[in-house]
Amino acid sequence: MQDLIRNKSAVALSIGLSLISTKVLSAETSTDLKQIVVTASGFEQEATLAPASVTIIDQETLSKHGYRDLNDALRTVPGVTVTGGGSGDRGTDVSIRGMGSSYTLLLVDGKRQSGRESRPNGSAGFEADWLPPIEAIDHIEIIRGPGSVLHGSNAFAGVVNIVLKKRKDYSLETKVTVGNYGYEQAEVYGFNSGDDYSLSVGAYSTRSRGDSFPWLDEVEGIKGSGLRQDFEMGHN
């Protein structure tokens, strides 16, 4: 009889511990899955509570899939279409839910980025060369749906917000890419920030000889270079 009581007690204790561990695991999982988004409502909140359809591409995903640039990352998002950025054309058109690219707003750290329409005879879209490299990005927030109330008419289809890494100490990162047809690309990106300022500088150089066709004597290649600099100062 005493053995039976001990066995029942052991079973009850085992079930109790199992339930406790399950609750702890569930709590840890729910905590890990929380993602903060600021673009949808203008203030920090969990992505699941945001009043819009939100996709967040975090730093781990960016590194795991080996995206070369922002175009590669955005092409994996449902409802987002990316065109351009190839064959020497460095312009990129990002469309959300089938609407024109002029209705999609691009932000970097919440700040509006000028597009090709700012140039003489320019059109809607973004200059791919002036966007931060993947190595400098902490995460990307994609908001599908009208955001005109917060961000203006350019955000009628949605918003793409690129959030950069925050560094307290100076950091310099470099990347070299080599591909087919003589494709070579070198990138360098530097960070420096303090209590009331932040500075980021990036530069790239791209070269490719193009496709090789035996019946052509000369093939036009692709060359390009660029420089980007951002500086902010304020009081925290």
Keywords:
Ferric Hydroxamate Uptake Protein, Chain A, domain 1; 2 domains; disordered N terminus; globular; 236 residues; 4 helices; five-stranded mixed β-sheet; single chain; four-stranded antiparallel β-sheet
Any overview of this molecule?
- The chain has 236 residues and is α+β, with helices and mostly antiparallel strands.
- The protein folds into two domains: 36-164, Ferric Hydroxamate Uptake Protein, Chain A, domain 1; 171-233, no CATH class.
- 20% of the residues lie in helices and 37% in strands.
- The strands form four sheets. It has a five-stranded mixed β-sheet with strand order 3-9-10-6-7. A four-stranded antiparallel β-sheet has the order 11-12-13-14, with no helix packed on it. It has a three-stranded antiparallel β-sheet with strand order 4-5-8, with no helix packed on it.
- The longest helix has 32 residues, at 2-33.
Would you spell out the secondary-structure blueprint of this structure?
Elements: H1 2-33, E1 36-37, E2 45-46, E3 53-58, H2 59-64, H3 70-74, E4 80-84, E5 91-96, E6 104-108, E7 111-112, E8 126-127, E9 137-144, H4 148-151, E10 158-164, E11 171-178, E12 184-193, E13 197-208, E14 222-233
Give me the side-by-side strand order of the main sheet. Answer: 3-9-10-6-7
Given the structure, what is the number of helices? Answer: 4
Shape: globular
| Low-confidence region ranges | 2-33, 212-220
In the CATH scheme, the class of the largest domain would be: Mainly Beta
GO cellular component, one term: cell outer membrane
Keywords: Signal
Pfam families: Plug
GO molecular function: siderophore uptake transmembrane transporter activity
